[in-house]
Structure formats: C-alpha cells, structure tokens
Amino acid sequence: MARLQILELPTGADDDRPPFILVIDQAPRDENSAAFRDDILNNEIAAHIGARHVLVFEDTIDIPANDTSGYLTPRDAGQELVVQLGDQDVSQLIDKVVRRNPHGDA
C-alpha cells in the first residue's frame, strides 16, 4: 500500500505558506494507477493540494526529517540526564510537585 510523506522545503520571501513536496512511495505500477500517474505527470495533483511537486516511487523512500522511530524505542538508562540544583536532584523536586498536584491544576 502506498505511503504519503511530506518533504518540507525552505521558505522563500514570496511564500505565503511553507512550501512542500508530496512524496508517495511503495506505489504499485499497474493499470489501476495509470490515471493517477497521468495526473501527477500533468502536475494536476500538486496544483490542487498546493505542493511544489509530487514524486512517486515504487520503492520505499525514507525521508530523514520524517523519521519518528526514536519516539518508539524505550529510553536507555545511559541516555538519562540528571540535573542538580545545589545538592538536590531536580527530579526529586519535580516528583514532589507532581505528587502535590497530580492533575496539573494551576
């Protein structure tokens, strides 16, 4: 099944909204997708959605800026940052505040 990804482009002085390219990968090449591919070649889809261009690939294309795999992996204890305020661990202070106000009420 095809995937849709957005590749953000640098904003220019005349851009009224952030420019982007729509990247479609894992797209099958068959008779059912022929009309869709024709629309892409004529830039009709890009114009309709406001993209600078639409790129279509049969293979998988990974855009590094869209990589969210780092959010899916459990945190490694070696990556933990410990901040101290004077001689007290700040995480202890945060724990005390959260215990006093568990629902985040101001």
Explain how this protein is built.
The structure is a single chain. With 106 residues, the chain is α+β, with helices and mostly antiparallel strands. It has a domain at 3-63. It has 4 helices and 5 strands. It has helices at 34-41, 44-49, 69-72, 90-100, and strands spanning 3-8, 20-25, 53-56, 84-85, 88-89. The protein has a 3-stranded mixed sheet with strand order 1-2-3. Strands 4-5 form a two-stranded antiparallel ribbon. The longest helix has 11 residues, at 90-100. The radius of gyration is 23 Å and the shape is elongated.
Fill in the keyword field for this structure.
106 residues, 27% helix, alpha+beta, two-stranded antiparallel ribbon, three-stranded mixed beta sheet
Q: In percent, how much strand structure appears in the residues?
A: 15-25%
Give the strand tally: 5
SSE-based structural type: alpha+beta
How far the N terminus sits from the C terminus, by CA atoms, comes to 46 Å
- Share of helix among residues? 25-40%
Average predicted confidence as pLDDT: 78
The radius of gyration computed from the alpha-carbon positions, rounded to a whole number of angstroms, is 23 Å
> Given the C-alpha coordinates, what overall shape results?
elongated
Element string (H = helix, E = strand): EEHHEHEEH
Strand order within the widest beta sheet? 1-2-3
The biggest beta sheet, please? 3 strands, mixed
Counted by DSSP, the helix tally is 4
Unreliable stretches, pLDDT < 50, 5 or more residues? none
